Amino acid sequence: MVDLDAEPTDIAIVDRLVEFGTALRDAGLTVGIDDVLTFCAGVAELTPSDPEDVYWSGRATLVNRREHIPIYDEVFRRFFLHVPDGAANKKPKDVKVPQGSTGTINIPDSEPGEQESKEPPLVLGLEASSLEIERTKRFSACSDEELASVRRMIARIRLEPPKRRTRRSNPDPSGATLDIRRMARQAMNLNDSAPSLLQMDRKRKPRPLVLLLDVSGSMADHSRNLLQFAYSMRRAAQKVEVFCFGTRLTRITPLLDRRSPDAAMRLAAEKVVDWDGGTRIGESVETFVRRWGRRGLSRGATVLICSDGLDRGDPAKLADAMEKLERLSHRIVWMNPLHDVHVGAPPTLAMAVAGPHIDEVASGNDLGSLEAFAARLPQIG
Amino acid sequence: MTEEANTTTPESVGDLREQLIGVDYLADRGLATATLIALRLGRPLLLEGEVGVGKTELAKCLALLTGRELIRLQCYEGIDTHQALYEWDYARQMLHVRALAEHELTDANTIGGLYSEEFLLERPLLRALRAGSRSVLLIDEIDRADDEFEAFLLELLSDFQITIPEVGTVAAEGRPIVILTSNRTRELHDALKRRCLYHWIGYPTVDEETDIVKLRSPGVTDALTSKVVNAVHRLRDMDLVKPPGIAETLDWVQALGAIGALEFEGETVVDTLGSVVKDRDDLELVSSDISRLVDG
User: Fold this and answer.
1) What is the DSSP string of A31-92?
2) Which domain holds residue A175?
3) Is B27 in CB contact (< 8 Å) with chain A?
4) How far is A350 from chain B (nearest CA, A)?
5) First and final C-alpha spacing in chain B
6) What is the mean pLDDT of residues A298-315?
7) pTM assigned to the model
8) Does domain B13-78+131-160+170-201 bear CATH number 3.40.50.300?
9) A44 plus A186 within the same structural domain
10) Would you call B108 an interface residue with chain A, using a CB distance cutoff of 8 Å?
11) By CB distance 3.0 to 4.6 Å, which of A18, A231, B55, B251 could disulfide with B47?
12) Percent of chain A with pLDDT over 70
């Protein structure tokens, strides 16, 4: 650890290092006091006058996720290499503009809000952020009463994800294997009487659930409810991952972990930038497969896709992505609000293409069908 | 592992890099610095990065370099403390009890003896604790284990001691070198990350990778090496589902060597592509544009 009886020059260095830690904290990194101590101790082992040593020891001790590396670099440059603030400030501004907002899918809101009337026509570039507010409008605009009534109803739905067998076992008189361990323990206690046969069986654990929610324009009537449904699921079951998609895919799982559903849904509305836009199911499923499915997020999981199948993307891509998704997950359920229990789903191209890879089609256009689905869920898989 | 293995801690970052090159591992400055700090401060080192960039290999090379024993714990979903730490050998205990009973030897002493070293099955973590500073503990693919296991590791990594109720507390005499690797299939808990030093291993540059290939496969001609490395870098730019890591580059060079290829051209490339591209969709994508791969 840091030597307290150090030379004055050393103390000056330590001061500087601690300041650097503070600067990082200001930039949004979680830097604890112990992290700074480790940092100082690390630098002490190297050459404090060598910026490269300081850089790398800081990166090893103060950064603990990859996404933070650019921020770290930025602060380091400003702090130790004295890059002027102007150049440094540029970056956060770039970051704020979402990659997908090119303005091409700016579909006017059906109920114009105050924001729109006050602002002059949108210009791309600097005002990209206000464009974002417009897109999230529909969702944030719904009244608290509305949200509350939907929440009350959806929250009543009891959810139980399908289960899988785990590696671990539990005592079970009708189990298939002998529980040697318990028998041994009993044998020791009973001393010499013959041990009785004790059985056990594999424990059952809920399967993970992955929800892919279509929030495009054609789903506008349903997406709010579906999100509420997703929120309830997230709270009811342990392993639930939630994604929204329109033209691009956004992971909103962490946002749903709020105590207050309203706050959670507001956050989600802010994060999803392609609200009420077009749909590219194929690309979105493909993105999911590539970024999350491949890494095992959907392995052994029940994947629930909620979409009306009105797709503007490439059907070949959807077929391809669905095939991959099928191989990476346990079951795929497609919830289609246009699906009628008696007539079936309308023959959209996307549904036709995805059909062979879907295990089950459900409706979800009203509370009744959501409840029916929730009741059906434990039996899937 | 030889007795004469170098056991002194390296003096500087440059020193460590030299020593690692001695065991055929080329670390860039960042990785070497992180490793050196981890060694000096006795902290675990968490390595993240794409598949096949040498995360696991670093632990192996460190073991070789320091002459320590490499103890590897491969994590998987559902791993529990029994598989990671220790387990009682129930079957043997039971047989032992039977034998004792037959000779009417069951008294407090012999029963107590059931929970002795003899019946304790050592698993990687306990073994690493006991070996202490004579070991390198590699906890591989920690992201595959469950959250509960992570919490358990947290405890172990902060104190380097565990308590076995029947035996007592086992504490490490010296700290083992601990390397954790993760492929980021899920986010690790911040608490665990805070116990560790962190380093992200990215893909190397063309020059670095050429040096790595030369170090690992010295028999290959420079011309072939440079062509393969350039091709791999082009592959990484191609938006593949599974971009090749350094391990794949080395495999490819070796595959070419195995079939005695002297030139890097059309047919030999197609024939050996399986050693570097390991996904059907990727294979189709690459095969359709093989000339771009060869000529650049």
Assistant:
1) --HHHHHHHHHHHHHS-TT-HHHHHHHHHHHH--SGGGHHHHHHHHHHHHS---HHHHHHHH
2) 168-205
3) no
4) 21
5) 42
6) 78
7) 0.64
8) yes
9) no
10) no
11) B55
12) 62
